[in-house]
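Quick illustration, no need to memorize.
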Amino acid sequence: MEPIRILNKSRHGLPGYSTPSSAGMDLRANVDEPVVIKPMEHVLVPTGLYMALPEGYEAQVRPRSGLALKYGVTVLNSPGTIDADYRGEIGVILVNLGHEDFVVRDGERIAQMVIARYEQAGFVGVETLDKTERGEGGFGHSGVL
């Protein structure tokens, strides 16, 4: 994959992988003052990052497991998708599902970003669909949760 062009208007370094086998790179908060997220509230946290993804790629914004486990803080629209043609600032919608206020400080790792290849599908209208063993069975249809 070709390198991704990124404009960094934050006070922090470019995103990077923590280990050689990491799938996601950390995104950091770029805030002038601490942001308090009360229980059951959500906020858009800026990162100061802007990028130009190659056509056929997306960036997925995902929660950090440590924040979720320790504080109940997660990414609200997980995974959030950044499209290849988006040129605005990358923001992270954090929600506090915990019981105490959570404070986001400048430079704090707030989410992770995974770059993934995708394909666009084409659709064709039909009158019927082929039959399968599952059929229209949906949630819980197998009797196993």
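The CA atoms of residues 5 and 20 lie 21 Å apart.
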